[in-house]
């Protein structure tokens, strides 16, 4: 195998690879990493607890809310229950996101030599992972990590920005806004002490105690940072011993409930565990369905290669009133 590389040919082959594998590339890109989850841990695929919706612009997020409807019968009159049906349309919207990656001649040659070295060491089968896939996979892996760890939870929309945090308002941003506006009722914000390694079990139990029975025995998850989950595990072991089923990997639910821990790397440093029904948090995406939304370009004079992709992402909350958390202080 030759150690030289023709960048003009590489540009053409990358472009052809992108066209031929358009659906596959976008299918991988639209599922936010970290590698879609970490097997055997509390970091799970997004669609394991969120609702994923493909939309080109806006979509209604909320489900129909029905109040009390039963009343005494045996009457000859029709007596509709007042305000039994509560329309509460919430709209989710995608925002445009793009990848603009520029490889200088030096960097593309370093990538090529890295790939070639792995091929020669038989760590990569060039028939299964050609150079075009090696480059594409590296870009997509970082993009998915950016979306899940930074954009999806911590984003604050800034159209003039240039970082993953500027793409859209993330879940953490939206939740704090809903707390301020009353979209998440004040009764859902439980007064706790600051959660630490010495009090986590008791403070989590305060939030659990405030959950309505209908929700407690439903399909709730606790979306939280690794730090808060670790505090819970260590505090539980300190209180109840170090038996094998008290280790972190085995303690994936809050004891005495079926509420499963979901760890999100994007919530690092966030002092509020989020209790909500599975599917209440929503991830929106779209590939923009355009022939020019994935392209590769090579500039001969500067000997650099550009890799470009356009897409749309968004997130939302179907029913803020079905989120419970603490006061964070």
Distinctive features:
329 residues; alpha/beta; 5-stranded mixed sheet; 14 strands; globular
Q: Return Rg in Å.
A: 24 Å
Number of strands: 14
User: Taking all residues together, what is the mean pLDDT?
Assistant: 86
- Work out the count of structural domains: 1
Structural class: alpha/beta
The coarse overall form would be globular
Explained architecture:
The chain has 329 residues and is of the alpha/beta class. It has one domain. 31% of the residues lie in helices and 20% in strands. The protein contains eight helices and 14 strands. It has helices spanning 7-20, 22-29, 105-120, 131-154, 171-181, 200-209, 213-216, 226-240; strands at residues 51-54, 58-60, 65-66, 85-86, 91-93, 95-103, 189-190, 220-224, 260-263, 274-277, 281-286, 294-299, 304-317, 325-326. Strands 1, 6, 11, 12 and 13 form a five-stranded mixed beta sheet that branches. The protein has a three-stranded mixed beta sheet with strand order 9-8-10. The protein has a two-stranded antiparallel sheet with strand order 2-5. The model has no long low-confidence stretch (mean pLDDT 86).
